[in-house]
Design a protein that fits this description.
7 strands; globular; alpha+beta; 6 helices
């Protein structure tokens, strides 16, 4: 089982295979919830097409044996409109321009294989390769209990801790009724 995690730059078609609704008039996030959810579906698709056509791109894609299997949204925090205007997720050290990891999606048929771990490692490496000195996420604290797929899209505190992130502070944000934490990892030089 070969897993590759690659920047989404130049890979919009792979992103679209599972992040863009197939049916005309279908709904969906298209990973725009934190970027600009005011856009209609054609606007969301075009926005992400444009993001995937330039550096640093909007995130990373996981490939399992060459087949696109997952997605992680990672980009400079300043590119996420909803985060910049958030009243529930605090702003700390914004002058450092931290990168934010806001979303994980693993395609059906590829779940329960640990791909979120690969996606998180790939997101951190992409941020580092793009010049980030600090990366943060806002995962849910499960208290050791199972979390549903919908609530777990932000990742879990346990996942982030296993990958070198530290809890900074509890936020006022929730997912699935559970508190989300601001967690950070210094990337160094």
């Amino acid at each position: 089982m070969a897993i590759d995690v690659l920047p989404a730059t130049g890979r919009f078609d792979d992103f679209a295979t599972f992040m863009v609704p197939r049916k005309p008039g279908g709904g969906g996030c298209v990973c725009m919830s934190y970027r600009d959810s005011r856009l209609d579906m054609p606007g969301r698709i075009e926005y992400m097409r444009t993001e995937c056509s330039s550096e640093p791109g909007p995130g990373v894609l996981a490939y399992l044996d060459g087949e696109v299997a997952g997605w992680c949204s990672v980009a400079p925090k300043s590119t996420y409109r909803r985060l910049m205007n958030s009243r529930t997720i605090p702003h700390l050290d914004e002058e450092r321009d931290p990168w934010s990891i806001v979303c994980f999606v693993v395609r059906g048929g590829f779940r329960k294989r640990g791909l979120m771990h690969d996606l998180l490692d790939g997101a951190v490496e992409h941020a580092r390769a793009s010049g980030a000195a600090l990366v943060e996420g806002y995962p849910v604290d499960t208290g050791g209990e199972r979390v549903d797929v919908i609530s777990g899209y932000v990742g879990t505190v346990e996942l982030f801790e296993k990958h070198g992130f530290s809890r900074v502070l509890a936020t006022d944000a929730h997912s699935g009724g559970r508190v989300r934490w601001l967690m950070r990892r210094e990337l160094g030089a």
